[in-house]
Design brief:
Elements (H helix, E strand, L loop, with lengths): L2 H11 L6 H10 L2 H15 L4 E4 L2 E5 L27 H13 L4 E5 L8 H12 L5 E4 L2 H11 L3 H11 L14 H7 L6 H13 L4 E7 L5 H18 L2 E8 L14 H14 L5 E2 L3 H4 L1 H7 L11 E2 L12 H10 L3 E4 L15
Parallel strand pairs: 1-9, 2-3, 2-8, 3-4, 5-6, 6-7
């Protein structure tokens, strides 16, 4: 019996907030099965125990030209290389027209940081997509937004207001990876600092653009740094309430120069459980089937997660182990012992005939 870790779990189950120091004790010394059980209990108190949710969205990577050069990314092409691409508004409209034909009316718009694009490109893309009908657009990571601020000489708040007027509905907390300066210098020295990431998301939330946040681990980060990342997210959520969900996932090996360690299932499930316990101000914890696969994902739904973060149509950046259709998502959730419930990117339940049990 690990008394300090067990007492921390008891504290959490009593409805008390645990500290970063206590979360670190859970990571270092806690029994992952006990963490799973506590996380599951807290999830079941907050949300209907019998339901697991899913969604469906189309990822549109509008360009792979990028000047950030993250060490872990194999998707980008150097600006001026002549090898990359920029999708036209017509190409993006056609992608979403195809998606709408199979019942997918949500788009995740994200690309490399490419200063040669005009601001009108972003607003025109969203306006054209919105003309197709009821389409929810989630777009632009903090690093993309900060680049727009610098490139176009507009305050971030003005950038966001113009994007929102053109059709932007929500934003991802992407580009976070590990929110410590040491790890950001290892992963992507040219990317926004922790302070800039927080400023970007704070401003988004203040402007009525909620969204998600994530953590990506499984490289050179320490356990302390994973917990520090969660602290940064929790503190910002206390301030703004703008995070609808949180997703922990692990790095994939994409480039020779980037170190990826093997994260065994017990560690992933322990971290997911700690996310549920520590992030007491975020309702939804997703497990990424795209990155972790269905085996671990099924267990994750019994370990604090309430959503499978799928179906994702067209993934170009990561190797996807996820589900390719809504039918597969419904079947997976049922096989995992839950009632499937479709939800949109605002986490509002929506009626879908496939989700009917």
């Amino acid at each position: 019996m690990n008394q300090p870790a067990d007492k921390i779990l008891e504290k959490a189950l009593d409805g008390q907030r645990i500290s970063p120091e206590e979360a670190l004790i859970l990571y270092r010394d806690g029994d992952f099965l006990k963490i799973q059980m506590a996380a599951r209990e807290l999830r079941n108190r907050k949300l209907p125990p019998e339901i697991a949710t899913y969604t469906m969205f189309r990822v549109v990577n509008y360009t792979n030209f990028c000047n950030v050069e993250c060490s872990f990314c194999s998707f980008m092409d150097e600006i001026g290389s002549g090898k990359g691409y920029v999708l036209t508004t017509d190409q993006i409209r056609e992608k979403m027209r195809e998606s709408l034909s199979i019942g997918c009316n949500q788009m995740f718009l994200q690309g490399g940081v490419y200063p040669d694009l005009k601001f009108d490109y972003y607003t025109d893309v969203m306006s054209v997509v919105k003309e197709l009908g009821d389409v929810h657009i989630r777009g632009f990571s903090p690093v993309e937004l900060i680049s727009m601020e610098k490139t176009f000489g507009m305050p971030l708040r003005e950038v966001l207001r113009k994007l929102k007027a053109a059709g932007l509905d929500t934003v991802p907390g992407a580009g976070a990876e590990i929110l410590t300066e040491r790890m950001r210098n290892i992963l992507s020295p040219k990317k926004s600092s922790v302070e800039e990431w927080v400023r970007a998301l704070r401003t988004c939330h203040e402007e009525g653009l909620p969204g998600s946040a994530n953590v990506v681990f499984g490289s050179d980060e320490t356990q302390d740094e994973v917990i520090e990342h969660l602290r940064v997210v929790r503190d910002l959520q206390d301030e703004t309430g703008g995070f609808l969900a949180f997703i922990p996932w692990t790095f994939q090996k994409q480039t020779k120069k980037f170190y990826v360690r093997n994260v065994a299932a017990p560690e992933y499930l322990k971290v997911l459980g700690i996310c549920r316990i520590f992030l007491d101000n975020i309702d939804h914890i997703e497990t990424s089937l795209m990155v972790l696969g269905t085996g671990v994902g099924s267990i994750a739904l019994h370990s604090g997660a309430d959503d499978i973060s799928s179906v994702i149509l067209e993934e170009n950046v990561l190797r996807s182990y996820g589900l390719k259709s809504e039918e597969k998502a419904v079947e997976f959730i049922k096989d995992s012992g839950f009632t499937p419930q479709y939800r949109d990117l605002l986490y509002v339940p929506r009626a879908r005939s496939l989700a009917a049990v």
